[in-house]
Write a structure and sequence with these properties.
single chain; alpha/beta; Rossmann fold; 10 strands; binds adenosine-5'-diphosphate; binds magnesium ion
């Protein structure tokens, strides 16, 4: 599909929650074991691009023709006031939006040029390749640290040998910048870690299935400044190995971690859209639109 509908209603045949009626039993995926030597984020880099993505909850249109290229191996920051559709946009990228009843969308989401909404494409496969980390760290609190990391494999239906599993746990924890802090207590509960460690544990769990893309929805907003810096360091280390899209309300953070930045805005009667997107240095240093300038300088939002 190439465009939002003229009638301003959701396109049929696009992913609507009702049309897809996700069946959890059918939505599992058995992938072949990872090849020897494969490690999280170790594959070729994949970029993500949306073309004219619009979104609705029922009849409420919340996104209007959002087109954005999120370059491979870089960090793209999504900024804008609350309610402008940033989280909805992230959930559209990995096919979580359609899990909301009444949710609909139009447009294209291209992962390496291939639409993730192409008929016949499995949501579980898309979600394995495009992982997500949420605002509140959500490890399984009673589960051990190592099982938390490996749980991503299980959920994705990826079968690995016991040795490969151990390797993946270590590699994923190293990539998430948590290994040094937890390697002597891998059998202890994930819930006993600090908030910042739990968030890095969730990052490790996402990395264990070797995603191409990592989506992060305000991953530091529940963390103290020290933990925030630690997660930012992790993001910086992951950059170049995989493609990251991060929503943040912290303007300093957007400037520290991202290379590309998109400013979203909605008004009371218009859906969220991108006002301006481009290199982060330009969005912050010489924005073209007055609204961007006002927002990044803290004059509203
Ligand atoms: N599950 C939902 N059902 C109905 N409306 C929703 C739902 N989630 C978000 N919205 C609405 O969509 C708009 C965008 O929300 P959201 O994507 O969460 O914005 P942001 O992340 O930028 O704060 C808001 O008007 C919000 O109220
Ligand atoms: Mg949000």
């Amino acid at each position: 599909m190439t465009d939002a509908p003229m009638t301003d209603t959701p396109m049929t045949g696009v992913a609507t929650a009702d049309a897809l009626a996700i069946d959890p039993a059918a939505d599992t995926l058995t992938l072949p074991p990872l090849p020897p030597g494969a490690h999280p984020g170790g594959g070729p880099l994949a970029g993500l691009e949306t073309r004219d993505v619009s979104a609705w909850f029922g009849t409420h249109k919340v996104l209007e023709r959002v087109s954005l290229a999120m370059p491979a191996g870089e960090v793209t920051a999504l900024i804008g006031p609350s309610g402008c559709g940033k989280s909805t946009y992230l959930r559209i990228l990995n096919r979580m939006h359609e899990m909301v009843r009444g949710a609909a969308l139009a447009g294209e989401v291209l992962l390496e040029g291939d639409d993730v909404y192409r008929p016949g494409r499995r949501p579980a496969e898309v979600r394995r390749r495009i992982g997500m980390v949420f605002q509140r760290p959500n490890p399984f609190p009673a589960m051990s640290i190592q099982d938390n990391v490996a749980s991503g494999l299980k959920l994705a239906g990826i079968k690995v040998s016991k040795d490969e599993r151990q390797d993946l746990v270590e590699t994923s924890l190293r990539r998430a910048g948590l290994w040094d802090e937890v390697h002597t207590r891998l059998h202890t509960p994930g819930g006993a870690l600090s908030g910042g460690q739990q968030q890095r544990l969730c990052i490790a769990r996402s990395l264990a299935v070797s995603p191409d893309i990592l989506l992060m929805d305000e991953p530091c907003s529940a963390l103290d400044p020290t933990s925030t810096r630690r997660v930012e360091e992790t993001i910086a280390e992951l950059r170049g190995r995989l493609t990251i899209v991060i929503v943040t309300h912290n303007m300093q953070q957007a400037q520290r971690v991202s290379q590309t930045c998109a400013f979203f805005l909605a008004t009371h009667d218009t859906p969220g859209r991108i006002v301006e997107a481009g290199p982060t240095a330009q969005i912050f240093g010489s924005p073209r639109d007055q609204r961007t300038s006002d927002y990044v300088n803290g004059r509203f939002g």
